[in-house]
Amino acid sequence: MTNEASLEATTARDAFWLRIIYIVSALVCAAVAFLILGPRPSSGGSLDVSALPLVNASLNALTTVLLLIGYALIRRRKIPQHRNVMLAAFAASAAFLVTYVIYHWFKSGPKPYLGRFRGLYVAILLSHISLAVVILPLALVTLYRGWVNQRPAHRKLAKITLPLWLYVSVTGVVIYAMLYR
Q: What is the pLDDT of residue 85?
């Protein structure tokens, strides 16, 4: 295979997987929006999900720790360990998403904030939601670039992804603390 043919194959593969990433990201965001804003199941309450906010906050905290470990590992050039930890961070985020969806499917709606710092809460919540929508495709593309060994593109994107992903995971814990503590 010539270099030109190899480049064409890589470009076609990238286009395919990037399209899949963007479609999956849009579908997940639409599903979450529907679950939060849409109608509730008529059989609501058949599953006790009261422990899931703590589970969600714990998964966000775990994601934060794993992201920081992954960053430390890559700074030490421990690429295989970095890859494993970053995949674990993504798995923790995916587990969060699953439990978040389950919680919102069986709950009557989002819990209202009753604290004294409503303006701060709303600012954190809106920035968290906005960046959570952005981080899903961004994290997937960053992981993809690393997985297929496109190191310059991965590194460039990771410089954007890491701080945003950290912000989303940390503010997830902060939102839990503001709502449930």
A: 98
pLDDT tens figures, 8-27: 667 888 899 999 999 999 99
The model's pLDDT over 34-63, given as tens digits with 9 standing for 90+, comes to: 877 777 666 555 788 889 999 999 999 999
Contact 63/100 with Cβ under 8 angstroms?
A: no
Residue 47 lies in a domain: no
Does residue 112 register a pLDDT over 90?
A: no
Work out how many domains the chain is built from and give that number: 1
User: Is 44 part of any domain?
Assistant: no
Can you give the CATH number for the domain in which 118 is found? 1.20.120
Give the residue numbers spanning the domain of 167: 3-39+52-180
Written in H, E and C, the secondary structure of the chain is CCHHHHHHHHHHHHHHHHHHHHHHHHHHHHHHHHHHHCCCCCCCCCCCCCCHHHHHHHHHHHHHHHHHHHHHHHHCCCHHHHHHHHHHHHHHHHHHHHHHHHHHHHCCCCCCCCCCCHHHHHHHHHHHHHHHHHHHHHHHHHHHHHHCCCHHHHHHHHHHHHHHHHHHHHHHHHHHHHHHC
What contacts 97, CB < 8 A, 6 or more positions away? 28, 32
At 115, which amino acid appears? G
Mean pLDDT computed over every residue of the chain: 90
